[in-house]
Each structure stands twice: as structure tokens, then as C-alpha cells.
């Protein structure tokens, strides 16, 4: 892995849009070099290292220090294979020796109130957002720690497509809901860096302004490799592939996980 700041910025944006410092800390270099891993060696992750990575996840900031998340650690090959089979389109899940499910956990707060003799009166959409953010921050910290340790990861949002199966298999009680899964293991190879949208599109200084989006898209689309088109069975095939903006629009024009809200309500999660 290179630690040259200019090379890392150029790889992340496909250009050098600003002059970075001549030297940066190794931890920052590792973050800039982050990429997903979709091929894993079968070697196990040693337990002391795994527990240290989990400690890194728990080092993430948490809203009001409430720590409204839980991490389900899965090492049973049969359970990992079941998740992979339900998802169907991600064979690398089966190859990973570890699968982590990051969950929002409102149940713990309810139990704390009960144990302290108080009523839990924050079953609302704000608590749902707080718990989701806590889980996401914990996952991000584990990803960064895994990269620093030479391990590879790949976030899996598709677990939310199969909550009605994953929930019972992992004994998720009411008040606990999946946010995302994460494969973890030793990489066979590292994927290429995925270029990101320019800062001029994502970073808004002092006030929101997306007037430059349309002008920025052609250059950004040219950086990305043509991708397999989303939802060809609904929106039609495209053998030559899709640029990023077209594929994003294809995905966002088809309803996804329309049953998730109902599942959350049935599992005691209020979105009011």
C-alpha cells in the first residue's frame, strides 16, 4: 500500500483536485486506501485479533453514550452459507470465515429503564435514527481497524432484504433490527479503489448548493468502469453496461425493501 498522499487522493478521485500535505499519518493513509474485499482465504481470524477488532468497533462515538447497537458475530459456516444462499448474488459471503451483523438495539434501553424503575418513552423515529447511526459508526470503526490489521471487509446491505429469515435464525428479539452485514477475512486480493464523487458535489461550504451536480457527472461517470445494469428484468437489458449515474437512477427508480417498515413495526420499532 502506498503512503504517498498525492497518489492516494488521485486514486480516490481519479485526479488531484487539491494539494494534500506532503506527509500524512499511516492511519489516514489506510483510510484513503480503503477498498472492499470479495475474495477471502479460508484461514480463520485469530480470536485475540477478532476481539481487538470488536473493541475498535466499540470505540466508535455513540449518541449520548447510550450505545444503542449490538453486533452479532457469526462464525458457523452453515449460518454464513444460509445468508449467502438467501441473498444469492454474493458468493464471497460463503468464503468469508466471519460474518458480522450490525444491529440497532432499542431493546437494551427499554430493559435499562425497566431495571431502573422508569418508563421508556422514546420509542420514536429519532431513537430509530440514533440506533441506526450508532450501528453504522461501529461498523465503520471495525472496517478501519480491519484494514489496518491487513484484513478485508465488504458491507452487505442485502441482509435487510431477508430480515424475516435472518431475524429468527439469529434470535433477534423485538427492538433489535439489522442495519448491515459485514464479511471479514484475509483477502486473496484487494479490489481496485472505487473513485468517489468530487468534493464539489458532496461537500457544501456554509450552505447547501447542488447546482454543480449536472456539470460534474460526465467527468465522474468517465472515471467509473461500465457496470452491470440494475434491474434489467424491469428496466431492460443494456449489454454495454451502465455508467454510474445511470445505474444509480435505475436502482432508485425501482422500489426496494418495501416490506421493511412493516417488519420493523411488527418487531416493536416505532417510526412515529
What is the H/E string? HHHEHHEHHEHEHHHHH
Strand order of the largest sheet: 1-2-4-3
Q: What would you call the shape? A: globular
Strand content: 5-15%
The end-to-end span amounts to 47 Å
Structural category is alpha+beta
Poorly predicted residue ranges: none
CATH homologous superfamily of the largest domain - what is it? NADH Oxidase
Number of strands: 4
Architecture of the largest domain, according to CATH? Answer: 3-Layer(aba) Sandwich
**Proportion in helices:** 40-55%
In this structure, how is the largest beta sheet organized? 4 strands, antiparallel
CATH fold name of the largest domain = NADH Oxidase
CATH class term of the largest domain:
Alpha Beta
Brief characterization of the structure:
With 272 residues, this protein is α+β, with helices and mostly antiparallel strands. It contains 13 helices and four strands.
Note down, in words, how this protein is organized.
This protein folds into three domains: 1-33, no CATH class; 35-192, 3-Layer(aba) Sandwich (NADH Oxidase), CATH 3.40.109; 199-252, no CATH class. The chain is built from 13 helices and four strands. It has helices at 5-13, 26-32, 47-58, 77-87, 92-95, 107-115, 125-148, 163-169, 199-202, 213-223, 232-235, 244-252, 260-266; strands spanning 69-74, 98-105, 152-156, 176-185. The longest helix has 24 residues, at 125-148. The termini are far apart.
